[in-house]
Design a protein that fits this description.
- Helices cover 1% and strands 43% of the residues.
- Strands 13, 14, 15, 16, 17, 18, 19, 20, 21 and 22 form a ten-stranded antiparallel beta sheet that branches.
- The longest helix is centred in the middle third of the chain and has 4 residues.
- It is elongated and about 75 Å long.
Length: 279
């Protein structure tokens, strides 16, 4: 699939290109003879590209210049490897040397995110692109020459029914502390619409109740849990599930990520409970 970022107006400073008339101070933007100013397009808003775990996804990034010429103009880009946190296994870039064609204001590059159902990038991972130069152009005070590109990790659709099955527990923050030894769970549908139940809940050795998740069918976000259910039956009293935002399901690859806290004597201890569906 291809997700193209909207091509909005050039974000570099065009004020430098304005010239005053002799009698009236009316700015005139000269796209043929003005000073050519270059920069990334659309970077006043947060730039995101889509990562779909089930298939490779193409995303478009645009570089622009403020004037037209009758010759091609070469562009030089680089990746800031010190600032870039997204692993190279998750993306590829079509070129770092695109060309703005003669008679055009812009050129595009394609960043392809590479599908992976076994491992996912972090929610805060990013690619940082640097615009080093555009032939016969310069950068203005407001030109964006460094672009931080974040990820939007999502499946193309949400199929809650596809979550039913057997899962491996791949993340359980206090499993070692509680001495948890059971790292598989069965997930069943219900009890209500847009809900699934994780049988045995979080910490089986602690007598946890089943964990019921309510899911937004449009986004896959987890929006509630059964907060009357026991999370951990520790010596200083039972603690109950307390919902924290940020959990999600990726139904296309069978991943469940839950953010929780304890509610009672050990509240204030956020913890994750992450599951991956067995083949």
């Amino acid at each position: 699939m291809k997700k193209s970022l909207n091509k909005i107006s050039l974000i570099f400073c065009v004020a430098a290109l304005f010239f005053s008339c002799e009698k009236r101070e009316i700015p005139i933007f000269d796209i043929e003879n003005g000073v050519p100013i270059a920069g990334f397009n659309g970077a006043f808003e947060q730039t995101k590209i889509t990562f779909n775990p089930s298939e490779d996804t193409e995303n478009t990034i645009t570089i622009g210049v403020s004037t037209l010429t009758n010759t091609d103009r070469s562009v030089n880009l680089s990746i800031d490897m010190e600032k870039t946190t997204l692993s190279e296994e998750f993306y590829s870039i079509s070129t770092l040397s695109p060309v703005i064609p003669a008679g055009s204001f812009t050129t595009d590059i394609t960043i392809t995110t590479i599908a992976s159902s076994e491992d996912l990038p972090g929610a805060s991972d990013e690619i940082v692109l640097v615009l080093n130069s555009v032939e016969d152009a310069e950068f203005g005070d407001n030109s964006v020459t460094e672009l931080s590109i974040l990820l939007d990790v999502k499946c193309p659709s949400v199929d809650i029914a596809a979550l039913v099955g057997t899962y491996d527990v791949v993340g359980s923050t206090f499993a070692g502390f509680f001495g948890e030894t059971d790292f598989t769970r069965e997930v069943v549908a219900g009890p209500d619409e847009n809900q699934i139940t994780i049988i045995g809940g979080t910490y089986i050795t602690e007598g946890a109740d089943d964990l019921i998740l309510t899911i937004n069918p449009e986004t896959g976000s987890i929006i509630a849990v059964n907060e009357d259910g026991i999370n951990a039956q520790v010596s200083y009293g039972p603690n109950f599930y307390s919902f924290l935002p940020g959990g999600r399901v990726l139904t296309c690859v069978g991943i469940i990520e839950v953010n929780l806290d304890f509610s009672a004597s050990i509240s204030g201890n956020p913890h994750d409970f992450d599951l991956v569906k067995q083949p």
